[in-house]
Amino acid sequence: MTHSVQYSAAGAGVELAAPDAVLTVKIDAAHTAGAYEVFEVDAPRGPATPLHRTNWAKAYYLLQGRMLVQVEDEGYELTPGASAAIPPNALHTFTVLTPSVRFLAISQSDAMGRFHADLDATVPRDRPLEEAMGELQQVLARHDVTVPGFDPPGGGSR
Questions:
Q1: Where are the domains of the chain?
Q2: Listing from the earlier edge strand, what are the strands of the sheet with 83-86?
Protein backbone atom coordinates (compact mmCIF):
# COMPACT_ATOMS: atom_id res chain seq x y z
CA MET A 1 0.00 0.00 0.00
CA THR A 2 1.33 3.45 -0.88
CA HIS A 3 0.37 7.05 -0.36
CA SER A 4 -1.63 8.59 -3.20
CA VAL A 5 -3.38 11.84 -3.96
CA GLN A 6 -7.00 12.09 -2.87
CA TYR A 7 -9.03 15.14 -3.80
CA SER A 8 -12.26 15.73 -1.93
CA ALA A 9 -14.38 18.69 -3.01
CA ALA A 10 -16.34 20.80 -0.54
CA GLY A 11 -19.47 18.91 0.44
CA ALA A 12 -18.17 15.63 -1.01
CA GLY A 13 -17.15 12.42 0.73
CA VAL A 14 -18.63 9.24 2.11
CA GLU A 15 -20.99 10.00 5.02
CA LEU A 16 -20.93 7.78 8.09
CA ALA A 17 -23.70 8.10 10.69
CA ALA A 18 -22.91 7.91 14.39
CA PRO A 19 -25.42 8.28 17.23
CA ASP A 20 -24.19 11.82 17.98
CA ALA A 21 -22.85 13.09 14.63
CA VAL A 22 -22.35 12.58 10.91
CA LEU A 23 -18.77 12.10 9.75
CA THR A 24 -17.81 12.83 6.16
CA VAL A 25 -14.65 11.06 5.04
CA LYS A 26 -12.40 13.72 3.51
CA ILE A 27 -9.15 11.69 3.33
CA ASP A 28 -9.37 7.94 3.76
CA ALA A 29 -6.70 5.58 5.03
CA ALA A 30 -6.44 3.84 1.65
CA HIS A 31 -4.75 6.99 0.29
CA THR A 32 -2.33 7.38 3.23
CA ALA A 33 -1.14 3.78 3.60
CA GLY A 34 -3.16 3.64 6.82
CA ALA A 35 -1.11 6.41 8.45
CA TYR A 36 -3.95 8.88 9.02
CA GLU A 37 -7.52 9.82 8.09
CA VAL A 38 -9.41 13.13 8.05
CA PHE A 39 -13.13 13.47 8.75
CA GLU A 40 -15.41 16.50 8.71
CA VAL A 41 -17.78 16.06 11.64
CA ASP A 42 -21.20 17.72 11.93
CA ALA A 43 -22.76 17.33 15.36
CA PRO A 44 -25.94 18.85 16.74
CA ARG A 45 -26.47 19.86 20.32
CA GLY A 46 -27.90 16.88 22.15
CA PRO A 47 -26.84 13.90 24.20
CA ALA A 48 -23.09 13.44 24.02
CA THR A 49 -21.39 10.11 23.60
CA PRO A 50 -20.49 8.85 27.09
CA LEU A 51 -16.88 9.05 28.19
CA HIS A 52 -15.04 6.32 26.28
CA ARG A 53 -11.60 5.02 25.31
CA THR A 54 -10.32 4.26 21.83
CA ASN A 55 -6.97 2.70 21.03
CA TRP A 56 -6.15 5.35 18.41
CA ALA A 57 -4.88 8.91 18.82
CA LYS A 58 -6.88 11.72 17.23
CA ALA A 59 -7.11 15.48 17.11
CA TYR A 60 -10.08 17.82 16.75
CA TYR A 61 -9.88 21.20 14.96
CA LEU A 62 -13.04 23.29 15.35
CA LEU A 63 -14.35 25.02 12.23
CA GLN A 64 -17.73 26.31 13.42
CA GLY A 65 -19.65 26.54 16.72
CA ARG A 66 -18.46 25.92 20.26
CA MET A 67 -17.84 22.64 22.05
CA LEU A 68 -16.32 21.29 25.22
CA VAL A 69 -13.84 18.44 24.82
CA GLN A 70 -13.25 16.38 27.95
CA VAL A 71 -10.05 14.34 28.15
CA GLU A 72 -9.70 12.41 31.42
CA ASP A 73 -10.49 14.99 34.16
CA GLU A 74 -9.78 18.11 32.08
CA GLY A 75 -12.20 20.13 29.94
CA TYR A 76 -11.15 22.24 26.96
CA GLU A 77 -13.52 24.72 25.34
CA LEU A 78 -13.01 24.84 21.61
CA THR A 79 -14.01 27.83 19.51
CA PRO A 80 -13.33 28.22 15.77
CA GLY A 81 -9.62 27.76 15.12
CA ALA A 82 -8.97 25.90 18.41
CA SER A 83 -7.80 22.30 18.55
CA ALA A 84 -7.27 19.45 21.00
CA ALA A 85 -5.16 16.32 20.69
CA ILE A 86 -6.47 13.16 22.36
CA PRO A 87 -3.93 10.42 23.15
CA PRO A 88 -4.80 6.77 22.53
CA ASN A 89 -6.66 5.11 25.42
CA ALA A 90 -7.52 8.45 27.07
CA LEU A 91 -11.03 8.67 28.49
CA HIS A 92 -12.78 11.35 26.41
CA THR A 93 -15.96 12.84 24.97
CA PHE A 94 -17.26 16.12 23.58
CA THR A 95 -20.33 18.25 24.30
CA VAL A 96 -21.79 20.66 21.74
CA LEU A 97 -22.43 24.06 23.34
CA THR A 98 -24.08 25.78 20.34
CA PRO A 99 -26.96 24.55 18.17
CA SER A 100 -24.36 22.58 16.15
CA VAL A 101 -20.64 22.30 15.49
CA ARG A 102 -18.49 21.41 12.52
CA PHE A 103 -14.95 20.21 13.12
CA LEU A 104 -12.18 18.18 11.59
CA ALA A 105 -11.23 14.92 13.28
CA ILE A 106 -7.80 13.63 12.32
CA SER A 107 -7.09 10.02 13.26
CA GLN A 108 -3.48 8.87 13.41
CA SER A 109 -4.27 5.42 11.98
CA ASP A 110 -6.99 3.71 9.99
CA ALA A 111 -8.85 2.54 13.12
CA MET A 112 -11.34 5.41 13.41
CA GLY A 113 -12.57 4.94 9.85
CA ARG A 114 -12.97 1.18 10.29
CA PHE A 115 -14.88 1.73 13.55
CA HIS A 116 -17.24 4.34 12.09
CA ALA A 117 -17.84 2.36 8.90
CA ASP A 118 -18.81 -0.65 11.03
CA LEU A 119 -20.99 1.53 13.28
CA ASP A 120 -22.75 3.04 10.25
CA ALA A 121 -23.35 -0.40 8.69
CA THR A 122 -24.43 -2.16 11.89
CA VAL A 123 -26.44 0.25 14.05
CA PRO A 124 -29.79 1.03 12.35
CA ARG A 125 -30.34 4.74 11.73
CA ASP A 126 -34.12 4.46 11.92
CA ARG A 127 -34.30 2.96 15.44
CA PRO A 128 -33.79 4.76 18.73
CA LEU A 129 -30.35 4.04 20.15
CA GLU A 130 -31.90 2.39 23.21
CA GLU A 131 -33.38 -0.26 20.90
CA ALA A 132 -30.05 -0.84 19.09
CA MET A 133 -27.87 -1.38 22.15
CA GLY A 134 -27.06 -4.99 21.23
CA GLU A 135 -25.70 -3.95 17.83
CA LEU A 136 -23.80 -1.04 19.38
CA GLN A 137 -22.18 -3.31 21.99
CA GLN A 138 -21.01 -5.67 19.24
CA VAL A 139 -19.38 -2.83 17.29
CA LEU A 140 -17.65 -1.50 20.42
CA ALA A 141 -16.28 -4.95 21.23
CA ARG A 142 -15.02 -5.56 17.66
CA HIS A 143 -12.98 -2.33 17.75
CA ASP A 144 -11.80 -2.40 21.36
CA VAL A 145 -13.70 0.79 22.22
CA THR A 146 -14.62 0.81 25.89
CA VAL A 147 -17.27 2.78 27.75
CA PRO A 148 -16.85 2.49 31.53
CA GLY A 149 -19.94 0.84 33.02
CA PHE A 150 -21.20 -0.38 29.64
CA ASP A 151 -21.12 -4.16 29.38
CA PRO A 152 -19.94 -5.84 26.17
CA PRO A 153 -21.92 -8.77 24.67
CA GLY A 154 -21.80 -11.74 27.01
CA GLY A 155 -21.86 -9.57 30.14
CA GLY A 156 -19.08 -8.37 32.40
CA SER A 157 -17.00 -5.21 32.13
CA ARG A 158 -13.87 -5.01 30.02
A1: 15-142
A2: 15-18, 21-27, 37-44, 100-107, 58-64, 83-86
